[in-house]
Amino acid sequence: MFAHETILHRLRQGCQTMAYPDGPPPALPDRHGGALRVDATQCDEGCNACVPGCPTQAITRPVGETVALDLGRCIFCAACVEVCPARAITQMRDHRLAVRRREDLVLGKSGAEELRLAAALDEKLRRLFGRSLRLRQVSAGGCNACEADVNVLGTIGWDLGRFGIQFVASPRHADGLLITGPVSRNMELALRKTYEAVPLPKLVIAVGACAIAGGPFINHPQVLNGATSVLAVDLFIPGCPPHPLTILDGLLRLLGRLNERPLHS
Predict the structure, then answer these.
(1) What is the number of structural domains in the chain?
(2) How far is CA 42 from the centre of its chain?
């Protein structure tokens, strides 16, 4: 009787997994402003109201230059958006944030107003990883926020496994590392050894402000300011923490599995 009721209950529930990426992406929560855009032409000459309020020194404006915003350092607190009198920095409510090159996360510099989103791996690597990607997740001193949102991707609503992407327990079974946390000095050796245990060819993905640049712990003597201090990184996914949709978008973008669609209103 119990099994019969369980089956009926499952049938009434229907499919709980979101249609994305075949359908529109789910809406970001109200408190999540998504990607930021910088329009340096709107900055008043001599104004640097946004600079002192940034807790991670993600915003700079040297004398005589335009404002620059490093989304790799940014924790998306939106303090800069609130204090900017010219509205030169705005929230886009766009979940897409992943890039392949660290320098592509710096907005305002060299005229870049929005992110140059991540390109897919080359054809050879897509053939290897496009249908089956195994990742070993390494928390290198993280606070568990990024780790929690990575774990969300394994739940029934997201079902990361339907894309052929899985997390494995051993680096010897992995195709690459997904790193969270600022890379504390106590975790440096463990991270290096884990990377060495992954067979070639291998990928490295940095998730969150800490793994990219140290996050709120930047320049603390006990952290190394992110994964790039130890390893070459193939994909950067900013956020503090990144929304699960941002992480999924970055992974699928890397594997060439996305057909771009307009964002829903």
Answers:
(1) 1
(2) 28
